[in-house]
Amino acid sequence: MNPNDKPLVWLHGEIKTPPFSQAARLEAGYALRRLQRGELLGMPLSRPMPSIGPRCHELRIDDTGASWRIVVRIDPDAIVILEVFSKKTRTTPRSVIEACKKNSGSMKMREEKKKRLEAKGWKIGTIKEFLGLSDEESEYIELKMRLADGLRERRQRHRLSQMELARMLRSSQSRVAKMESGDPSVSLDLLIRSLLALGISNRELSRMISTSRSASAA
Question: In this structure, what are the phi and psi dihedrals at residue 152, rounded to the nearest 5 degrees?
């Protein structure tokens, strides 16, 4: 985790990690890591929730037999998890909205209130702690982020559009966009093969991998 990344904050003991499968856990971890870095996520992964409050969003994590939602508030200095629930209807239940409003109102990430918040049960921690990620899962998320970033940076360095890169890869523009955003449907193998197609050297690729391992260990 980069020192400039926003910390993750949640109400310890009340907001619990759902029983995700490994695939869903990785997807949730990747989405939260992107938010920590200040990235903006769009539909269908994230949708604004003005009914809860400013800067509130609902992350969609589909899993086997369940469709989970993680409600977050994106503050300038933190990513606040307000609620986690299994969505069974098209609309967000009123009880969830009210619970999120209550949690949102009680959490202000100011340094002078940090100890008071922790005393009230708010935990300031990492995605690894919240989702219960293993070391290997954390490394996987960081590696995928680094490869996706590297693909976008290298494409731009070659002054190629996503469409032009898609032609090189015999793929589609939408697929390239998914690769650069680290979409769950994109494998590490595809990212590496795409980087090799853009001429990345083994040394550069090794450096990229070692950087991701350092980030996950931080």
Answer: -65, -45
Domains of the chain: 8-133 (no CATH), 136-210 (1.10.260.40)
Q: What is the pLDDT of residues 180-210, one digit of tens each?
A: 888 888 889 999 999 999 998 888 888 877 7
Q: Which residues of the chain have pLDDT under 70?
A: 1-3, 12-13, 105-121, 211-218
Whole-angstrom distance, CA of residue 125 vs CA of residue 8: 5
CA distances from 116 to 68, 110, 130, 185 (A): 30, 10, 20, 42
Residues paired with residue 9 on neighbouring β-strands, in sequence order: 80, 124
pLDDT at residue 114 in the model: 61
- Round the CA-based radius of gyration of the chain to a whole number and report it: 18
Q: What does 130-164 look like in DSSP terms, one character per residue? A: HHT--HHHHHHHHHHHHHHHHHHHHHHHTT--HHH
Strand partners, 60: 69
pLDDT digits (tens, 9 = 90+) for 100-120: 787 776 555 455 556 666 666
What pLDDT is attached to residue 105?
67
Report the alpha-carbon distance of residue 208 to residue 72 in Å, rounded: 30
For residue 44, is the peptide bond before it cis, meaning its omega torsion is within 30 degrees of 0? yes
C-alpha separations of 26 from 22, 87, 95, 121, 217 in Å: 6, 19, 28, 26, 17
